Amino acid sequence: MTKAGFVVVANRLPVDRIVGADGEEIWRTSPGGLVTALEPVMRETDGAWVGWPGQADLVHEPFDFDGTALIPVTLSAEDVELYYEGFSNDTIWPLYHDVIAAPRYRRVWWDAYVRVNERFARAAADAASEGATVWVQDYQLQLVPKLLRELRPDLTIGYFHHIPFPAYGLYSQLPWRRQVLEGLLGADVIGFQRVADAGNFARAVRRQLRFETKATGIRVPQEDGSSRVALARAFPISIDTASYVEMARRPDIQARAAEIRESLGNPKRILLGVDRLDYTKGIQHRLKAFGELLEDGRIGIEDATLVQVASPSRERVQAYMELRDEIELAVARINGDRDTLGHTAIRYLHQGFPREEMVALYLAADVMLVTALRDGMNLVAKEYVASRVDNRGTLVLSEFAGAADELGTALRVNPHDIDALKQAIVRAVEMPSAEQGRRMRAMRRKVLDNDVAAWSHSFLDALEASRTTKGSTP
Ligand code: GDG
Predict the structure, then answer these.
(1) Residue 29 confidence (pLDDT) above 90
(2) CA 451 to chain centre
(3) For the chain, which terminal residue's Cβ has fewer other Cβ atoms within 10 angstroms, N or C?
């Protein structure tokens, strides 16, 4: 395999493996933001992508896919359980989302996390050409930057953190807090979603490691007594805006939106929630507020329907099983109490849908509810805005989602404050169309000007700049 000048390292490869009836193996692009974000960059460079192919115990040689070298990293069933479901999704995920669920600290999970991160680092080191650029993605691989730098000091290494970085008072719970910070500081550029996340990271570095920080620069001492400067700052991620605009303009998708409204009985207002079924998304808070509004009579059952898409996620992790039960109980209670034979309060869908259907739903929805308790960015908010080519619709947006930093004319809410959330929903439902237009136009400008290509370029430009200023300083 030839070595690559640009290497992406992510927990997952950008493809899914399907085995046909005749036993033939097919690889298909897995729909995901990161794939779309990096596709142009991968095409321009002789890129390679290191990641897990998504099936336990699958051993597979590197292969070419659409001009990108895909390098599968094998994870055993035990690795998946301990490194992925355990440490990544039951320790780091809840801790970094402000302990909405209790993080579990288990030493065997940590050991597996170290072991698997070493495996990814070795695979990346083998794939990269002399002086190559390597871009590591997300919280499953926080130790890779340092491990990779040790193996290959010639590389320029970037890391992007897709989820929040918590305040020090919470972060300091992590028994391996020093190792994780040191792992991340192996990168030349460490990217976060929000300015606040970068600030929390710098504070943790000062408190734990006593390293000097200045604006976005962190001085990292080297073993030989010199030091280098790592950059830690915000690069808010975005979506492939143009493709959403294009889908939203398609007559068949617009017709589908009308059909969705019709099939719900043409209520005056359709409210929509779209989330992976995850405790960070504030689905229960949304249901509670909507249920109370129906109970209070401030919203009539004939006037509004809430469509909640909750796509299946992490179904083997205990906290997610419990969450599903809680949400489904809440939905059934509200529907049982409020439905009439002709109208339903909440149309709940525990399913995933094609992107076209999501856009039709966005177009059908008068009000989009994003009530995350903590969220790195929340792409759904940006997708809704991008899809509203008619400049209509209202976005209710939690201040705890990264998107709130950019989408200033959304109706901003604290989802923990149920009365305020109810008030915001009523305001959204009643918002005059001129005000909808004014708010939506301002948000659309933001999302159209800052798409995912702009995001990857700004990150890679910063990484390139760090290469030119590289070199140890005394
Ligand atoms: C993490 C961070 C950050 C959902 N259901 C369906 C479906 N989706 C798509 C959405 C959206 C994506 O999944 C979810 O992205 P989010 O940003 O909302 O949330 P996470 O999955 O938690 O992502 C987050 C993100 O990384 C990127 O950095 O913004 O904060 O937590 O694109 O549309 N897509 C389809 N069918 C579904 O049923 N096709």
Answers:
(1) no
(2) 15
(3) C
Please compute, for residue 166, the number of CA atoms within 13 A of its CA located in the half-sphere on the CB side: 22
- The answer, yes or no, to whether any atom of ligand 1 lies below 6 A from the CB of 273, is no
Q: How confident is the model at residue 316 (pLDDT cuts 50, 70, 90)?
A: confident
User: How many whole angstroms from 169 Cα to the centroid of ligand 1?
Assistant: 28
Return the H-helix or E-strand segment holding 209: helix 195-209
- Amino acid of residue 437: G
Spell out the residues 6+ positions from residue 209 whose beta carbon is closer than 8 angstroms to its own: 178, 181, 182, 185
Distance in Å from the first CA to the final CA of the chain: 39
**Residue 469 confidence (pLDDT) above 80:** no
317-321, long-range: CB within 8 Å, 24+ apart, which pairs?
Answer: 317/85, 317/89, 317/90, 318/90, 319/90, 319/94, 319/101, 319/279, 320/277, 320/278, 320/279
DSSP code string of 300-358: -TTTEEEEEEEE---TTSHHHHHHHHHHHHHHHHHHHHH--SS--SEEEE-S---HHHH
Residue 49 pLDDT greater than 60, yes or no = yes
Average pLDDT over residues 386-407: 98
Distances from the Cα of 11 to the Cα of 68, 337, 410, angstroms? 17, 43, 33
pLDDT surpasses 90 at 6: yes
Decide whether any atom of ligand 1 lies within 6 Å of the 376 Cβ: yes
The contacts of residue 395 (CB under 8 Å, 6+ apart) are 367, 368, 370, 381, 384, 385, 407, 410, 411, 439, 440, 443
Number of H helices, E strands in the chain: 17, 18
Q: Which atom of ligand 1 is nearest to the CA of 401?
A: 30
Residue 1 clears pLDDT 80, i.e. is over it: no
Q: pLDDT at residue 394 above 80?
A: yes
Residue type, 79: D
Pocket test for ligand 1, best of 379, 382, 397, 455 (most atoms within 8 A of CB): 379
Q: Using CA positions, which residue lies closest to atom 10 of ligand 1?
A: 380
Is the distance from the beta carbon of residue 380 to the nearest atom of ligand 1 less than 6 Å?
Answer: yes
DSSP letters for 452-463: HHHHHHHHHHHH
| pLDDT, tens digit, 9 for 90 and up, residues 325-359 | 999 999 999 999 999 998 999 999 999 999 999 99
Q: Are 323 and 311 in contact, with CB atoms under 8 Å apart? A: no
Confidence band for 474, pLDDT divided at 50, 70 and 90: very low
Query: Is-contact 277 309, C-beta < 8 A?
Result: no
Ligand 1 center–CA 34 separation, angstroms: 10
Cα three-residue angle 224-227-229, rounded to 5 degrees: 150
| Rounded distance from Cα 381 to ligand 1 centre (Å) | 10
Instruction: Determine the Cα angle at 60 with ends 56 and 65, to 5°.
Output: 110
Helix 177-184 vs helix 195-209: crossing angle, to nearest 10: 120
